[in-house]
Write a structure and sequence with these properties.
The protein is mainly alpha-helical and 215 residues long. The protein has helices at residues 2-12, 27-31, 36-61, 75-88, 154-161, 186-197, 203-211; strands at 90-94, 97-101, 117-121, 128-132. Helix 3 (36-61) packs across helix 4. The radius of gyration is 22 Å and the shape is globular. This is SET domain-containing protein.
Length: 215
Amino acid sequence: AGGDMWQQLGRTLPSREDRELPLMWTDAELEELQDPELAASVQAGAAQAAKSFTDFAAAWDQGPALLDALSQPSAEDFVWALSLVKSRAIGDQLGDEFVAMMVPYAWMANHTFTPACSAAVSADGAAFQVDVFQPTKVPPGAELTVSYGDTRINQVLMENYGFSVEMNPNDFFALDGDLAQLELDKSKFEKVARGILAPKNQEGYMEGITASLPF
């Protein structure tokens, strides 16, 4: 029965050909993101992965005789496995150490900034548990979501998990110079920002933007 469980779990994982994370993308594909900073970070991660594979291959060659009966994974297999761990491992404190864990089924929970539950090590460190915040408000068959990080910007989400969140409240854009010194018409700025940053029904979001303007 245990073997069947692991086989079923294995079928839920993306194949190497899916290349779901930017870590497995080509430079041309990274350019399509139109985010040079993200592309540079991914390329640095790919270089580190290549170095790790070199160390892994050397250790494999010097490993126990048990490994002789197995085929050594290729560099592509190594990066694929690394991407699976990178996108699915759950980090938490275990005693005095922060550890990354691959928890069956829990790794299938999708991200939202308004999660239905949390997934973490219990307070006594004896078990891994999923706590539903308001069980009575979760209808049967509804998806149980978790947060991958309440303050994560889309660049981090894309690099680590391969997706971005529309209207991510943590995203920002930088303006060169001192905004307070710019002669801007606030009404025109509101009109442009309303069209670019927020749907018309999100008045509260726009109020937060315009209230922070220095004019």
